[in-house]
Amino acid sequence: MKNVKVAVVGAGVVGLSTAVCIAEVLPYCSVTIIADKFSPDTTSDGAAGILFASEFPDIPLERQQHWFKDTFDHLYTIAVSSQASEAGVLLSSGYQIFKEIPSDKTPFWSKYVLGFRPMTDREMKRFPDHKFGQAFTTIKCECSSYLPWLEKRLRKAGGQIIRETVKDFQQLGRSYDVIVNCSGLGSRSLVGDAEVYPVRGQVLKVHAPWLKNFIRDGDGKTYIYPGSSYVTAGGTRQADDWCLEVNKMDSEGILERCSRLEPSLHGGQILGEWVGLRPGRKNPRVEREWMQVKGRQVLLVHNYGHGGWGITLSWGTALDALGLVRQSLHERPPKARL
Ligand SMILES: Cc1cc2nc3c(=O)[nH]c(=O)nc-3n(C[C@H](O)[C@H](O)[C@H](O)COP(=O)(O)OP(=O)(O)OC[C@H]3O[C@@H](n4cnc5c(N)ncnc54)[C@H](O)[C@@H]3O)c2cc1C
Ligand SMILES: *[C@@H]1O[C@H](CO)[C@@H](O)[C@H](O)[C@H]1NC(C)=O
């Protein structure tokens, strides 16, 4: 029956998605999530959760398209189902606007979102500092609801959850056949992948229920994302900044920039401020290797480093990680642990 023991390290959107994919598809695996933080305390929880991406330099575009499309299709099915409100997955329409005309006017994900088109001159009139814009409908995946929903789905598939800090993968390998590393930015004490670095993001949560459509500046620094219970106004992208404290200057800057795009925000009420550290990496790492643990081979699958697009790519990279686990176990079935 369940004779392959799988540990997934991390309970953010990437870890939970990966755990659910493995538990639901591979009946011979017993899946355990091990993490030191759970919803509502992960990076994923504070993210606006808009599906949207930029291109990673060294990953074949086709693979990135898959990641985006698989996630979009999975979440779209939820968004148009009776589960939408419990799972916190909704459709969201709006604009991305540019001060300079971008070299690529149709990003790789434009064919997967709905109704992607250039903005008309009449629409652009509202944004005198901007020269070009795109209108489309995408998905907003609110992790404060989506993560608990995934947790429930994992338990239903027989998965287990343990709260613990992982210090040593070798030691973990003594009790498991497969380890999936979805630790996001990881912890500084984990033997480091020097290529992972924090990209600090600060946002404001604003009560402004009249706002229905998102606006994002193409530079990625200013955005307004209306959600089910508040508007997320951002933001910052500060590379190599580990500070989790709210910075007042950042908040003022955010409010100033966002109100220039959406003056009615001045009438909103600020409910809170939040800081998160994106798991920055030149390219996300979704690959496998074999680890020697006391004469046994333990499979180590990596799924981390999604930067500012962890929610956007969550289901697609989880399916890739599942594929790596399935293929590897087929090639080298695990030997009994002593
Ligand atoms: C302000 C802001 C806005 C964002 N907006 C968006 C957006 O609109 N769309 C989008 O797609 N993305 C967005 N992101 C990016 C997104 O939040 C991340 O890419 C995503 O959350 C990464 O998910 P993760 O599961 O890899 O990491 P996390 O959510 O950080 O989860 C990591 C998990 O690993 C565990 N862990 C780490 N180390 C250990 C250890 N040693 N032992 C045990 N457990 C460990 C943690 O406890 C946690 O459970 C935003 C980020 C920020 C900061
Ligand atoms: C696990 O992932 C983290 C990044 O989240 C990385 O720093 C670490 O090196 C990885 N651990 C192993 C054993 O590969």
TrEMBL record:
Cited Pfam families: DAO
UniProt superkingdom: Eukaryota
Keyword Methyltransferase: no
Domain FAD dependent oxidoreductase: 5-318
Subcellular location: Peroxisome matrix
SUPFAM superfamilies, A to Z: FAD-linked reductases, C-terminal domain, Nucleotide-binding domain
GO MF term set: D-aspartate oxidase activity; FAD binding
InterPro entries hit by this protein: D-amino_acid_oxidase_CS (IPR006181), DAO (IPR023209), FAD-dep_OxRdtase (IPR006076)
Catalytic activity annotation: D-aspartate + O2 + H2O = oxaloacetate + H2O2 + NH4(+); D-glutamate + O2 + H2O = 2-oxoglutarate + H2O2 + NH4(+)
Main location: other
Gene3D superfamilies xrefs: D-Amino Acid Oxidase, subunit A, domain 2, NAD(P)-binding Rossmann-like Domain
GO biological process: D-amino acid catabolic process; L-aspartate catabolic process
Transmembrane feature ranges: none
Task performed by this protein: Selectively catalyzes the oxidative deamination of acidic amino acids. Suppresses the level of D-aspartate in the brain, an amino acid that can act as an agonist for glutamate receptors. Protects the organism from the toxicity of D-amino acids. May also function in the intestine.
Similarity section: Belongs to the DAMOX/DASOX family.
Protein known as: D-aspartate oxidase
